[in-house]
User: What shape does this take?
Amino acid sequence: MTRSFLRDDDLTPGEQAEVLALAAELKAAPYDHKPLAGPRTVAMVFDKPTLRTQASFAAGIAELGGNAMLVDGLLAGIGKRESVADVARVLGRQASQIVWRTFAQSDLDEMAALSGVPVINALTDEFHPCQLLADLLTIAEHKGALAGLSVAFVGDAACNMGNSWALAGATAGMHVRFGCPDGYAPDAEVVAVAEAIGAGGSITVTADPHTAVDGADVVVTDTWISMGKEDEAAARRTVFGPYSVTPELVARAAADAIVLHCLPAYRGSEIAAEVIDGPQSVVWDEAENRRHVQKAVMSWLHSHVGESV
Ligand code: NVA
Assistant: This one.
């Protein structure tokens, strides 16, 4: 099976650094690198809502000289109208890479196993690795380095962003502290994998948001109601109420701390308007950086086609 990017730890620490360095190069000269010239087609498949992901992949594929093919998940009915296996074999004959946002990580794994082309995770219930590369590039731009920095992830850590922060943060050698209610920590197996990466980072989980944030270099949050969790909205607003990223909470972080949010944001819930729209917020750089890191991932995978995992 050719190399894909299905979860954050598909890149070793050295490879993650290589992809981030390539992203910085591509950001500095966005129109100079055309590995998808032909144009080669990249299929973008969405089974969940999207704004940044579709926009940044479409723009990035064009900048790489390729052709972005949008496949509407509702029309395609993957797993309902046709099996994942059949869709994988069909798309793999049309596209040189497949970008897929869907629910189950196991479906993404099947797509990668059967399509014959690199597959990129554009968000599943379990991981959001492209977002993490954007977060890491943004932090590196503002802080100069990644290894050794402390990151406080506050709120719902039992979601794709929490799991991806555990893996990608550990891969980058960062100290990731989750401040989340009991029952909303990242997946225990994912944390165990992250702790075994051995790049010098660490993972801690606390139910006290203050402990998580005290002195942190970076404060991160995400919506309390991830896509697919809408039925639990009322209960979640109650559980997560004390985990709102307010100016008072951010004041406990390092004086020069930066604040990240993958968006969409709900001001007054997981993050206060004064924080996301304030001077420590880097969310617009973070959103832009989706394009640069995803270009780097597509270029990197293209240059590794034929290498098996
Ligand atoms: N955890 C969020 C991330 C959105 C980009 C969700 O899955 O909806």
